[in-house]
Specification:
Layout (H helix, E strand, L loop, with lengths): L51 E4 L5 E5 L2 E5 L15 E6 L3 H12 L4 E5 L5 H6 L1 H18 L1 H6 L11 H25 L3 E4 L3 E4 L2 E4 L7 E10 L3 E3 L12 E3 H4 L8 E5 L3 H12 L3 E6 L10 H12 L4 E5 L1 E7 L7 E7 L5 E7 L1 E4 L3 E3 L25 E3 L5 E7 L10 H15 L13 E3 L4 E6 L2 H11 L4 E6 L4 H5 L6 E6 L6 E8 L2 H14 L3 H4 L11 H9 L10 H4 L12
Parallel strand pairs: 4-5, 4-9, 5-6, 9-21, 11-18, 12-13, 12-18, 13-14
Antiparallel strand pairs: 1-2, 2-3, 7-8, 8-9, 10-19, 15-16, 16-17, 20-21, 22-23, 23-26, 24-25, 25-26
Helix pairs in contact: 1-9, 3-5, 3-7
Organism: Theobroma cacao
InterPro entries: Class-I_Pyr_Nuc-Dis_Oxidored, FAD/NAD-bd_sf, FAD/NAD-binding_dom, FAD/NAD-linked_Rdtase_dimer_sf, Pyr_nucl-diS_OxRdtase_dimer, Pyr_OxRdtase_I_AS
Family: Belongs to the class-I pyridine nucleotide-disulfide oxidoreductase family.
Length: 583
C-alpha cells in the first residue's frame, strides 16, 4: 500500500536512496512480516523554543542547548572499540516522525539526546507525505461537497459553480508542511535535543559520524543509538520518472499541474487518496493494479463497498492483473506512453496514452550508507533486521548491543505513528523498563471521502488464525445509515465491521468505511491495546448524537459467551461499577 498516504520517518541526504530494495504490501492488517507503506502521521505537540548549531572551518561542531555548549572533535574517538565515556545518552539518526517521537520521550526520561538529520526535520510524513497530502485532501473534500448539487439541495442550500486556484491549493499544502516542520524543530530545541546537521553513518559500536559533503566529518558517541532513516518511493524497473509527467507521490504533492487524464500505478492507500484529489479537481483517472482486484490490502467486504462508493461513480476506470512494464514520459509533443503486460502470462496486453502517470507502487527502505557493514549487519531486502523490541540483529543472528532501528527502515509496519510508537518503546527499554509494542493495536487510515480505517486483522486473516489455533470467529456489523449524526450530515453511506472471538470476547479486528472513520477507529485500537473485551466495552457510554455511536452499536451487537468483568482494569477506565452488587 500499499499505496497510500501513510508513514514515514525519513532522513535523506542525497537524491540516491539508501536502498534499492522495495516493499509493496497488500495487507493492511499488518502481518508483521509484511509492512505497510501507508503514510500516516504521529506528531506530538510540544513547547516552542530555540537552540543553535554552528560549525567552524576546523570541523568542530558547537551545540548550544539550554545554555550549555560542548565541542566535539572529529578525531576524538577511534572506530574499533566502544568508548569508555559518551557524548550523549542517545543518538537518533533521522529526524522524521519516528525520530522526533523518540527524542521527545528520551528528554522526558532525562536522557541527553541528539538527533542527526541530513535533509529536513519532519521526514517524509511532514514534508512529502501525510501532512501535505491531508491539505490536498481537505480541498478535495470541500470541492466534492460544493460540486454535489444533490448534497447541497438536501440541506436547502444553493451554491454556484465551484472552482479552484491550483497555485492556491498547492500553497496551502506547502505552507502546512512548513508550519509543522518548524513546530517539530522548535519543540526539540526547546526541550534540549541537539540537532546535528549532516548524513549519519555508524562507524563502530556506539559511534556515529556525520557531516555535509565538502566539510570534515564529526564523530560523536552515545550509550544507545536509534536508526530512524525511513523510506523513499519505490519505482519499478522500466519506469522513467521525469518529475513532471511521470511522477511519484513526492512530486504529486507539489501539485504543479492538474492533468486531464492521469494513470495511477497501484490502487492502495497512496493511489486511492490521490485519485480522490485528482478527480475532485477535474481529472480522469485510470488505475493500473498488478493483482486481480482493486484495493487488495483492505478487508474484502470493506474493499467492495469502497469500490462502489469511491471508484464506480467517479471518472475512474481501471486495469487489474497487469504490470506497467514500461512508462515513457511525455516529450516532443507525444503523451505519456504506458505498456501493460499480463501479470500471469507476462505477455504484452495493452498500451495507454495519458497526460501523466503517478507511480504509487510502494516504499523502499532508506538504509544504504548507514555503515551497517561496520557492525556486521546485513539488510534483508533493504530493511534492517530487528527483533520484537526493535533491537538490531547482526549477520550471525546475534543482537547488536545498544543499537535499535525503528520505523520504515525496519519494515515491521510502515506508518509514521508506528515509527513514533516504536521509538517511545525503545526509550522505555534503554531507561530500564522492558516494553514490547503490540503492533496489532496500531490503527491505519485512508483519508478518502468517505474515509477508511482499520486495526488488527482482516476477516480472512482472522479465520486463518482461528483454523490454525482452533477457535471460532464471529463478525458483527453496523451501518452509518442508522446513525443520527451521519444522517444529519447527509452522510449515511458507511459500514463498521467487528471481527472477534465469541468464546472470550477478544477483539481481533475492526474496519470502518464512512464519515470520519479515521477518528472513530481509535476506540477500537485502544481497546485492543488495553486488552478490553467485547463483554466489557459494550457498557461504555457514548454521547448522543455522535458518530461514535456507530461503534457503540457495533460492540453492543456482538455476542460473547463470557460475562462482563465490571472491573476498571479491564475497561481501561472507560466505564466501571462501584462494586459487584450490580450484577
Amino acid at each position: 500500500m500499499h499505496s497510500a498516504l501513510s508513514s514515514l520517518s525519513f532522513s535523506q541526504a542525497t537524491t540516491v536512496p539508501r536502498s534499492n530494495y522495495a516493499f509493496d504490501s497488500h495487507s493492511p492488517a499488518f502481518a508483521l512480516s509484511q509492512p505497510v507503506n501507508l503514510r500516516f502521521c504521529g506528531l506530538r505537540r510540544e513547547a516552542f523554543g530555540f537552540s543553535s548549531l554552528t560549525q567552524s572551518c576546523s570541523g568542530r561542531v558547537r551545540v548550544s542547548s539550554r545554555g550549555h555548549s560542548k565541542k566535539i572533535s572529529a578525531s576524538a574517538v577511534g572506530n574499533g572499540t566502544p568508548p569508555k565515556s559518551f557524548d550523549y545518552d542517545l543518538i537518533i539518526i533521522g529526524a522524521g516522525v519516528g525520530g522526533h517521537g523518540a527524542a521527545l520521550h528520551a528528554v522526558e526520561k532525562g536522557l541527553k539526546t541528539a538527533i542527526i538529520e541530513g535533509d529536513v526535520v519532519g521526514g517524509t510524513c511532514v514534508n512529502r507525505g501525510c501532512v501535505p497530502s491531508k491539505a490536498l485532501l481537505a480541498v478535495s473534500g470541500r470541492m466534492r461537497e460544493l460540486q454535489s448539487e444533490h448534497h447541497m439541495k438536501a440541506f436547502g442550500l444553493q451554491v454556484s459553480a465551484a472552482g479552484y486556484d491550483r497555485q492556491g491549493v498547492a500553497d496551502h499544502a506547502n505552507n502546512l508542511a512548513s508550519k509543522i516542520r518548524s513546530n517539530l524543530t522548535n519543540s526539540m530545541k526547546a526541550l534540549g535535543v541537539d540537532i546535528l546537521t549532516g548524513v549519519g553513518t555508524i562507524v563502530g559500536p556506539q559511534k556515529v559520524k556525520y557531516g555535509k559533503v565538502g566539510f570534515p566529518d564529526n564523530i560523536v558517541t552515545a550509550k544507545d543509538i536509534i536508526i530512524a532513516t525511513g523510506s523513499v518511493p519505490f519505482v519499478p524497473k522500466g519506469i522513467e520518472v521525469d518529475g513532471k509527467t511521470v511522477i511519484t507521490s513526492d512530486h504529486a504533492l507539489k501539485l504543479e499541474f492538474v492533468p486531464d487524464w492521469i494513470a495511477i500505478v497501484g490502487s492502495g492507500y497512496i493511489g486511492l487518496e490521490f485519485s480522490d484529489v485528482y478527480t475532485a479537481l477535474g481529472s480522469e483517472v485510470t488505475f493500473i493494479e498488478a493483482l486481480d482486484q482493486l484495493m487488495p490490502g483492505f478487508d474484502p467486504e470493506i474493499g467492495k463497498l469502497a469500490q462502489r462508493v469511491l471508484i464506480n461513480p467517479r471518472k475512474i476506470d481501471y486495469h487489474t492483473g497487469v504490470f506497467a512494464t514500461k512508462i515513457t514520459p511525455a516529450r516532443d509533443g507525444k503523451p505519456v506512453i504506458i505498456e501493460l503486460t499480463d501479470a500471469k502470462t507476462k505477455e504484452p496486453k495493452d498500451t495507454l496514452e495519458v497526460d501523466a502517470a503517478l507511480i504509487a507502487t510502494g516504499r523502499a527502505p532508506f538504509t544504504n550508507g548507514l555503515g551497517l557493514e561496520n557492525i556486521n549487519v546485513v539488510t534483508q531486502r533493504g530493511f534492517v533486521p530487528v527483533d520484537e523490541r526493535m533491537r538490531v540483529i547482526d549477520a550471525n543472528g546475534k543482537l547488536v548491543t545498544h543499537l535499535y532501528c525503528i520505523g520504515d527502515a525496519n519494515g515491521k509496519m510502515m506508518l509514521a505513528h508506528a515509527a513514533s510508537a516504536q521509538g517511545i518503546s525503545v526509550v522505555e527499554q534503554v531507561t530500564g523498563r522492558d516494553h514490547m509494542l503490540n503492533h496489532l493495536s496500531i490503527p491505519a487510515a485512508c483519508f478518502t471521502h468517505p474515509e477508511i480505517s482499520m486495526v488488527g486483522m482482516t476477516e480472512p486473516q482472522a479465520r486463518e488464525k482461528a483454523e490454525k489455533e482452533g477457535f471460532e470467529v464471529s463478525v458483527a456489523k453496523t451501518s452509518f445509515k442508522a446513525n443520527t449524526k451521519a444522517l444529519a450530515e447527509n452522510e449515511g453511506e458507511g459500514l463498521a465491521k467487528l471481527i472477534y472471538r465469541p468464546d472470550n470476547g477478544e477483539i481481533l479486528g475492526v474496519h470502518i468505511f464512512g464519515l470520519h472513520a479515521a477518528d472513530l477507529i481509535h476506540e477500537a485500537s485502544n481497546a485492543i491495546a488495553l486488552g478490553t473485551r467485547i463483554q466489557d466495552i459494550k457498557f461504555a457510554v457514548h454521547a448522543h448524537p455522535t458518530l461514535s455511536e456507530v461503534l457503540d452499536e457495533l460492540f453492543k451487537s456482538a455476542k460473547s459467551t463470557q460475562q462482563p468483568s465490571y472491573q476498571k482494569k479491564h475497561l481501561g477506565g472507560i466505564c466501571s461499577f462501584a462494586d459487584d452488587s450490580h450484577t
